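Record Dephospho-CoA kinase, 210 aa.
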Amino acid sequence: MLKQLRKFSAPDDRALKVAISGGIGSGKTAFTNCLAALGGVRFDSDEVLRTITGSPGRALTQIREAFGASVWEPGGQLNRAALAKLIFTDPAAKARLESILHPLVWQEMDRVVAPLKPGDVLLAEIPLLTETGNHTRFDCCVMVDAPLEVRLSRLIGQRRLSEAQARARINAQASRAQREAIATFWVDNCGTPEDLNADATALWNLLSRV
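=>
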């Protein structure tokens, strides 16, 4: 079910920038896929992160300087599992990594936005939008949510996490109240894929009319 929580307006002199976010396992990627099929220009921050941390990514030199050989494979590739474990247990390491990665992500988004014209729509999937406070970069924010049991089932079944690991990842992220505080639109992803597609269509109709 799609709900509008607050008003927004589209800029007259540039493209409309829409952020799509939500907790892990909420279905935000599926919703973004539905929206992107209807129009707009997609920006996937996770894809950018994979690129800049893959070989020969722009972030690798800074990551090596910050964290040393402990997060590196013998063959010269970044050990993503070791890095993820480190930042999940060490807030200072997490902040250091974010200070390296986030500026590069926003630089890439600026590059994607630059050729867009007024009337165009940027659809940016930003998983940690609430946690990083970057919602102010966008004209409106769409939050996708799902019941806890559904999110746990997805994380256990699709990502092969234990229930304890899944709960820990969910609990480490922003709360529902924190997401509601910045959301322009709220999507309750508790139905079928057809329901989610209908919500995306309804939202696209609103976005394309402003």
